[in-house]
Amino acid sequence: MLRNLQLVYDKAEEMAAKWLKKQRRRERVYLRVRGWLGAGFGNKAFIDCGRAEAGTLVEGTVLATTPAGIIVSLGAGAAAGLITNKHISAHQVESAVGLLTPGTQVRAIVLPRTKGNDCSIFLSTKALEPSPGDMLREPQLVYDMAEEMAAVYRALRNEEMEKRRLNHTFIRKSGVQGRKLHKGVVVEVKPHVVMVELAESGATALLRKEMISAECVEAAGDVLKVGDKVRACLMYIYGRRIFITTRPLETMPGDMLRDPGRVYEQAGAVFEAWLENAGTRAPAWGM
Q1: CATH number for 248
Q2: Which domain does 197 fall in, by range?
Q3: Cβ of 204: how many Cβ atoms within 10 Å?
Q4: Which residue range or ranges hold the S1 motif domain (predicted)?
Q5: pTM score, two decimals?
Q6: For the segment 197-233, what is each residue's pLDDT rounded down to a tens digit?
Q7: Residue 179 contacts residue 280 (beta carbons within 8 Å)
Q8: Cα dist. 105→20, 32, 47, 119, 143 in Å?
Q9: Do 204 and 155 share a structural domain?
């Protein structure tokens, strides 16, 4: 792109058409595979008897490899599942054709089903990789460690589901939560956002770097570190995500950069004054 901009622009329509053709071909293959999986196999009975619960470790036989993924026979032919390309390995797989030989025994974990997809069974070997790319380098290692990695997957999934439950409970009470000052602990720091576990609810909230202070924050990690205790107020809720802010708690712009401890000490009085000025409810910062 940097070497010859005009050449890129001159061939833009041609390359866009090729990309679109490739995407449509992938979609057609994927839809054919989905249709094949839904017909001719007893997936519904397999699911109804509890053999395809999310997180279940299953063994099967490769029926075919396609551009969209690997089709696997389950339960001695009782059902069929699909390992899509993105769930084969943490390393990118463009096409699964020829990746495994039909008849090869595989082990995979069952993925959660989505709405409108009750009878399709999606599997993952990626979730069983001890290290990214193991499924492409040494699949037998993946199968040998499958029980251990499946247990890790289930533990992480249960943890994620619990976080979602706590966030859902918080969101249901958002009318009350918006009039409260929240305490929390920083659990993760990224350049543009900080993850905060709220003490009272256990929910996980996001504190964007621009909502830390009225003055410019180059990186969230310049102000906050994992383990730091914070006080903040609810900014807004978007979908399942909770956003908080410390910005309104500053008595002077930049206080969070100079002395966050002092901001937290004065937070109660400052927050009450802010609520009063806002008409007893927090304005939608950042909306």
Answers
A1: 2.40.50.140
A2: 173-277
A3: 19
A4: 55-126, 179-247
A5: 0.64
A6: 999 888 999 999 999 999 999 999 999 999 999 999 9
A7: yes
A8: 35, 24, 21, 23, 10
A9: no
Q: If residue 120 lies in a helix (H) or strand (E), which one and from where to where?
A: none
Q: Which of 107, 271, 99 is nearest to 181 (CA)?
A: 271
| DSSP code of residue 251 | S
Residues 179 and 210 occupy one common structural domain: yes
Q: What is the per-residue pLDDT across 72-84, written as a single tens digit (0 to 9) for each?
A: 999 888 888 999 9
Domain termination residue (choose one: 118, 133, 159): 159
Note whether residue 15 is domain-resident. Answer: no
Is 103 in the same domain as 54?
yes
Residues in the chain with pLDDT values less than 70: 1-5, 8, 21-41, 115-118, 174-178, 278-287
> What sign for the dihedral angle of Cα 133, 136, 138, 141?
positive
How many domains, in total, are found in the chain?
A: 2
Segments in 173-228 forming alpha helices (H): 174-177
Please give the structure tokens belonging to residue 54: 């999310």
Whether residues 189 and 101 share a domain: the answer is no
